[in-house]
């Protein structure tokens, strides 16, 4: 096996970008035996026709049409499952006649059906694989089939910290911040036996793939041997996320910026430290400062109402639009409580923004005092002080932004897939 090759690999995914990138890389190297996942836009005739419709085409382009595979080799090897339930879940989430809670509950049940369909479909492609890389919750049937064949390696892709670590953190937050409990509904809609299923997937895996040391430590604390953990930080699309062009940067430098803009991107949930973010910004806020929250609310929006005067909410954005929002901002704020490895941090850094984060996921990427600041979790005062320092010191802000962009260039998607590909080769040697 050469340095650039990998074992013949089956990839099983929901829609995690890191596994999309792995499947693409393996397909181009002729090492992908199959890619099993929910619906993806393959640019088929009916998808082109749908895209051309006046109203439906715009809706499709902003939703399922964004799940697009442009590489012919990957498209040929991609096998979809659970399509009907996937489409129905998206429709349910947009039904205005249902309450937010009922929409979420029905969509969750449908997504569980998607998971079962994808997981079962993957079994048909196990026999040809030397390695199976599968998303958590989607892995069990393929891993069991792999063991039945008594050949090949199983790699579980786990995008966040261990589920029991997350559960404990959530219970702590319900006690600390009861008003924000409704924005962290994780586990409430899990079907009976789901947690045991995750435990079984972890037990069957030869390796557990995570994006950060923080996530890896949560598994080790639950008894998973450190030797089975594989930490590979995720990547960033450097073509889309980049600093302003030189001419734009020069024009901006020659103009006195009237406002100081703080931006957050991600789900609006207490898991991301939402209450601490809002209180930290509230303590800092000036007449010429703005806070922009980009992303979809999770659970109830009632807890946000008391802070509504502090921020501007922007719905989920395309990647290019999000990059433009980053470039129009001054600092990225992400005081997360439980994470895997947040892509949004790398994306903001790649656009030249200094970042204020906790160590809970981003610490492998962000250099404290160089690319921004790492603050203690659950600490609004620390957030306020770091925002104030960056607000008062434009030179520090500019220097950290340049450092952040340079640092992000070390984490393009090719770096991620290259490191993971070599890891798979070592595991299967």
Structural notes for this entry:
The chain folds into two domains: 9-235 and 413-428, Rossmann fold, CATH 3.40.50; 246-410, Rossmann fold (3-Layer(aba) Sandwich). 45% of the residues lie in helices and 13% in strands. It has helices spanning 17-28, 45-52, 56-62, 72-77, 83-93, 100-122, 140-149, 163-176, 194-204, 213-221, 246-253, 274-284, 319-327, 343-350, 380-392, 394-408, 413-428, and strands at residues 9-12, 32-37, 78-80, 131-135, 153-157, 207-210, 229-231, 260-265, 289-294, 311-314, 331-334, 355-357, 372-374. It has a seven-stranded parallel sheet, sandwiched between helices. Strand 8 (260-265), helix 12 (274-284) and strand 9 form a beta-alpha-beta unit. The radius of gyration is 22 Å and the shape is globular. 43% of the residues are buried.
Core attributes:
globular; 429 residues; six-stranded parallel β-sheet; alpha/beta; 2 domains; single chain
């Amino acid at each position: 096996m050469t340095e650039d090759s990998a074992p013949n690999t089956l990839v099983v995914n929901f829609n995690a970008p890191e596994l999309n990138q792995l499947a693409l890389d393996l397909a181009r190297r002729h090492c992908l035996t199959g890619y099993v996942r929910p619906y993806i836009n393959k640019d088929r005739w009916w998808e082109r026709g749908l895209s051309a419709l006046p109203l439906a085409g715009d809706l499709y382009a902003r939703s399922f049409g964004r799940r697009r595979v442009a590489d012919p080799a990957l498209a040929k090897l991609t096998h979809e499952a659970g399509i009907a339930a996937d489409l129905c879940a998206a429709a349910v989430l947009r039904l205005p006649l249902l309450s937010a809670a009922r929409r979420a509950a029905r969509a969750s049940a449908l997504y569980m059906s998607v998971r079962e369909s994808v997981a079962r479909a993957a079994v048909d492609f196990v026999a040809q694989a030397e390695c199976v890389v599968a998303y958590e919750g989607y892995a069990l049937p393929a891993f069991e089939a792999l063991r039945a064949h008594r050949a090949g390696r199983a790699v579980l892709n786990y995008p966040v910290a261990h589920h029991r670590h997350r559960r404990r953190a959530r219970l702590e937050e319900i006690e600390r911040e009861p008003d924000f409990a409704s924005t962290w509904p994780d586990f409430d809609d899990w079907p009976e036996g789901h947690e045991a299923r995750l435990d079984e997937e972890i037990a069957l895996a030869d390796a557990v793939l995570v994006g950060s040391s923080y996530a890896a430590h949560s598994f080790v604390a639950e008894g998973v041997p450190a030797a089975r953990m594989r930490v590979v930080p995720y990547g960033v699309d450097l073509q889309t996320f980049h600093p302003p062009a030189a001419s734009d940067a020069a024009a901006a430098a020659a103009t006195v910026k009237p406002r100081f803009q703080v931006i957050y991107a991600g789900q609006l949930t207490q898991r991301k430290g939402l209450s601490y973010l809002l209180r930290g910004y509230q303590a800092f806020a000036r007449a010429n400062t703005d806070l922009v929250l980009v992303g979809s609310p999770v659970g109830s929006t009632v807890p946000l109402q008391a802070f509504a005067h502090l921020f501007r909410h922007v719905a989920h954005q395309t990647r290019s639009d999000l990059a433009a929002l980053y470039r129009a901002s001054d600092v990225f704020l992400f005081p997360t409580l439980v994470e895997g490895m947040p892509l949004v941090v790398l994306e903001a850094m790649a656009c030249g923004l200094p970042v204020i984060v906790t160590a809970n996921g981003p610490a492998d990427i962000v250099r404290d005092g160089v690319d921004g600041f790492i603050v203690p979790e659950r600490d609004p005062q620390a957030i306020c002080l770091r925002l104030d320092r960056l607000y008062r010191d434009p030179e520090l802000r500019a220097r950290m932004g340049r450092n952040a962009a340079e640092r992000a260039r070390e984490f393009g998607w090719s770096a991620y897939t290259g490191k993971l590909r070599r890891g798979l080769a070592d595991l299967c040697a």
